[in-house]
Structures are given as structure tokens and as C-alpha cells.
Design brief:
The structure is a homodimer of 152-residue chains. The first copy, chain A, has 152 residues and is an alpha+beta fold. Chain A has helices spanning 32-42, 47-50, 52-55, 67-80; strands at 23-29, 88-96, 105-116, 121-130, 133-143.
Chain lengths: 152, 152
């Protein structure tokens, strides 16, 4: 076992690459088309997301993105960047603090808080920001893949 | 204020309709197309979900759906059935217990656990089942819309 000669075949990190404080983030602009696509795949056609006339009667004064679309962005950072491919969700907590709207530029950031080498578990702080303000925060626990041994 | 003459313009429940023990559920079959659509809208192209050859090398022995796709189904029940349209997420906890695969028939069920009339908050148990076994469980807190007053 060891690092020599073993190249990960993909981006991301093995368990023994991970350290407390490591961060990864993505940034993307949310479009009304993204909101419509999320409504279609989830079945969540709550008019708060899709019906401008209805949404304008709510305290939000207009349509907002599904909260779980932001959660999906968290999943994407965990699954593609840190730990990256092979990461598997164990738990996620989510607190929805501010709405995300079509047109918002959304930054999704995850930060390693703890690594349990024995159990291959990684705890990460997860936050979704719009204009520097927290829209969603929470904590994820995922399993990270172990580095393949040289014999395998 | 009162129930007489006020018809909700949509499905779902107002805060004062809600009681501990009320349940709602949806059932749908997850397809590989759903998984691909979720990957596109989230940006989560983790090969565990999309690359059969890679996924077969993992403990899952094949592709699994994104955990957050199940979470999206929970959001859909909350946003379309119970409480229904106008519901807004405050928090959601998720524990991923078993994988969901393309072809699985997924039942998503939410059950009212507590109603806080003063704060308009509803706490619900949330569970996603495959073949009667829990794939994802957790708890949601949402705000439910108050019934419009007769004067408004």
C-alpha cells in the first residue's frame, strides 16, 4: 500500500488525501430553466417556484428556486470535487436561510471538518451563498473512497 | 376570519388544517433518464450515478441514484401535497440508509409530527422507501401558509 505508482483515474481525493480545513467550491448562475428542470425531475411544481403571479402574493414577492436545488449543488461539490467521485452520502443537514432566485449567482462551498480514517467517514461544513450571504447551510457526512492498494 | 366562504385556490393545506399524524405520499419509478436529468441540473456527474463500468467496481456493484434525488421527492410531497403549495422549507435532515437504483419504485411519505400555530411551523417525519425498506429518512420543518382572512 502507498502512494507510489497509484494514480487516481479521476479527479477528487482518496480518504488519506483529506485534511481538516480543505475546501472546494463551485459557482453557477441559477436560471428559470434550471428551476423548471428541477421541478420536472422532482415532481415539485409548487407555484412558489413556477407561477410568478402566485409567487408575487407571497412574502418572497416573486418566484424562488427550490431549496433542494441548492442542496443538489452541495451534492455536486461533494460528488465531483471534495471528496469527489466515489463519495457516498451518509447524512446531510440543511437550514434554508434566504431564498435563491433565478438570476442569482450561487457559490456552493464545502469545508472538511473531520476525517474518521477507521470508518472512512468525512464530515464537511456545507454552505450555499448568494452575494456573500448564506442562503443554505448545514453539515454533510460522506464516505470517501480508500486509495487502492498496489496489489489490487 | 374563518373557514366560511374561503376556498383555497389550490390543493394543499393551510396551517389550521394540519394535525399531528396526517400523512401524504407519492410513488414513482426512478429511471436512468431521471438520474441523468438530475445530474444535468445539479452538475453532479459523479460516475457512481452515470458510469456503469465505474459503479460496478464500487460496493454498490452498479449505478445508484443521487441521494439528493430522493430528497427532491421529499421536497415535492411537502410542496405539492402536505402542507402543499406555499409551504417553504426551514430545515431538512437526511440520513441515506440504502441506495436507490434505476428501475426502483420509490414511495416518499411525510407525516406531520408537530404544528406550531404561533410560528406557522410544521415538523414532519420524511421517509423514502424502496420495496418497503427505508432508503432515506429524516425530518423536515416547513412554514405552512395561513388561511386568508375573509376581509382580504
Amino acid at each position: 500500500m502507498g502512494r507510489s505508482g497509484v494514480q487516481p483515474s479521476r479527479a477528487g481525493f482518496f480518504l488519506d488525501d483529506l485534511e481538516v480545513g480543505q475546501e472546494a467550491e463551485t459557482s453557477r448562475q441559477v436560471t428559470q430553466a434550471d428551476i423548471a428542470a428541477f421541478a420536472a425531475v422532482s415532481g415539485d411544481d409548487n407555484p412558489l417556484h413556477l407561477d410568478r403571479a402566485y409567487a408575487e402574493t407571497t412574502p418572497f414577492k416573486g418566484p424562488i428556486a427550490h431549496g433542494m436545488l441548492s442542496a443538489a449543488y452541495i451534492s455536486a461539490v461533494l460528488g465531483t470535487k471534495l471528496p469527489g467521485p466515489g463519495a457516498v452520502y451518509v447524512t446531510q443537514s440543511l437550514r434554508f436561510r434566504r431564498p435563491v432566485r433565478a438570476g442569482d449567482q450561487v457559490t456552493t462551498r464545502v469545508t472538511v471538518e473531520a476525517v474518521d480514517e477507521a470508518k472512512a467517514l468525512v464530515t464537511l461544513k456545507t454552505v450555499v451563498l448568494v452575494n456573500g450571504k448564506t442562503a443554505v447551510d448545514g453539515e454533510a457526512v460522506v464516505t470517501a473512497p480508500r486509495r487502492p492498494t498496489e496489489a489490487s
